[in-house]
What we know:
Blueprint: H1 11-18, H2 47-64, H3 75-87, H4 92-104, E1 112-114, H5 119-127, H6 129-132, H7 137-140, E2 148-150, E3 153-157, E4 163-168, H8 173-177, E5 184-188, E6 191-192, E7 207-213, E8 216-222, E9 225-227, H9 229-240, E10 242-246, E11 249-255, H10 262-273, E12 282-286, E13 309-312, E14 318-321, E15 329-333, H11 340-350, E16 355-358, E17 367-373, E18 376-383, E19 401-402, H12 415-425
Parallel strand pairs: 11-12, 12-15, 15-16, 16-19
Antiparallel strand pairs: 1-18, 2-9, 3-4, 4-5, 5-6, 5-7, 7-8, 10-11, 13-14, 17-18
Amino acid sequence: MKEAIDTSPSRRQVLRLAAIGVACAVAAKAPSAAEPLRGGANDSYVPADGVSTFESVWQTVRDHFYDPRHSGLYWPAVRERYLPEVQRATSQDSLARIINTMLSELRASHTRFYTPDEPEYYQLADIFSGVLRRRGLQGAFPDGRISYPGIGIISRLETSGRNTITAVIDGTPAQQAGLRAGDEIVAADGTAFEPVGSFRGKVGESVVLEVQRGATVMQIPVRPVDLEPTKMFLRGLESSARIIESNGQRIGYVHVWCYAGYVYQRTLERLLSQGELKDADALIWDLRDGWGGAQPEYLDLFNGRAPTMQVTDRSGTSEIVNVKWRKPVAMLINGGTRSGKEVLAYGFKKYRLGELIGTRTEGAVLAATAFLIGGGLLLLAVEDVLVDGERLEGVGVTPTIEIPAGATSAGAEDPQLSRAVAVLSGT
């Protein structure tokens, strides 16, 4: 069996990021020269390499999974059941499916094996690039730049083989092309759609998507770009900020797509104190979909009893310190609200900061860490988490006003957003 390098993060690292988001990433092994780099297709796949990858994943789970009983499973027996399937695997995709089927038996959040054919592989690598650069990231991204060709959607693969868009990130080619949540992408340039593969080698070019929207099938051209995840999520946050006029009220709206880094909170504070939302009468704080990573203290933004400061340097540049929002606020949540965002939703509801509108959150609140193994990225739950003494894992947070999702993730046709506007504007 191939030995996985023991690179367990400290408890502080795990709890600081992972327990309230998706954890501190570390590398179990640096990819070899034979492994795919920059998300290239794994044309040189050899089954023996798949066995090595499987063995490393299995051992990493054995050594680091948060539950030493492995959720009641006899973990050596699990290996023996899946190993014959791994030996018959003929592609990286089939290997990943086998590994993820094995991991699903643990019934734990933040526990999945991602490949370079998935946007999440790059997003997680970018979220944890600070740690990974010291532990083998250069083997996968030789120039140090983490990016992938894409259009800025969050999607899920249906049993039919089609990809259904669950969210469209603001300020991306997908939004500019008019794609919507609920759209099913049937094909790209006449071939089966792949979230990354369909755009490889086509950055800056037009790619025609065959999209089914309800009973209508349409051809929608998009122009993929080279997406750097953190920049994409930050641009999405800034691009989402707007004022909605309703019943004589100016309702501010902002969507935080990812909270894995204080830069997102700082950007939100700037929008509220000096940016487009500073003159709003109320705020809609959208935490639906995307990644977690939020810190519980982010709720201090709505603690009206603490003072703020304005500091000005000698050039006359001013900045608000310890920004506070003392006006009405509502939070939007759904089944894609996960981990650190769920902690915020829990506190927002418990301490009655405003209405929680939408549907129950995912219930994915374990502490996790990440390992680079065999050309893929393993996200693994390594600690249990209680929030104010309660375990949210597998439970989630229920809204105070339950509103099912509509066909789109944001905009006038979004029933959850419409309800939030109505609540805050008194209509």
